[in-house]
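If you are new to this repository, start here. Below is one unmodified record pulled from the training split, so you can see the exact layout before writing a loader.
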Amino acid sequence: MAPVVYYSLPFLEGAAVLLLIIPKYQKVGFILSSILLLSFTVYVAIAALGIWDKIPCGCGALIAGMSWHQHFFFNLFFLFTSFLGLYLNKNQNYFNK
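And here is the target side for that same chain:
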C-alpha cells in the first residue's frame, strides 16, 4: 500500500494545482486539495502523538526542520486556507449566475 501512496501523491498534488488554475474546475481542485491536506494533517497529528516508532517524512527543505507540532499547525493553516477557498469559490459562483 505504501508504494501506491508514495507514487500517487505527486500526481494528485499536481492534479490539484492544475484543477485550481482552470476556473471551470476550481471547485474540484479545492476539494482535492482539502482532502490531501486533511490526510496530511491527520498523518502529522498521529506522528505528533508518537504512535509510531519510526516515522517516514518526505518533507521538502522548507518544512523538514519543523517539529511535528509545528508541522501540524502549518498544515492546519493551509487546510483552513483550502476550506476558505472552497467557500469563497462557492459564493463567487453563486453571485456570478
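Two things worth knowing about this chain: The first helix runs from residue 2 to 21. DSSP finds four helices and no strands in the chain.
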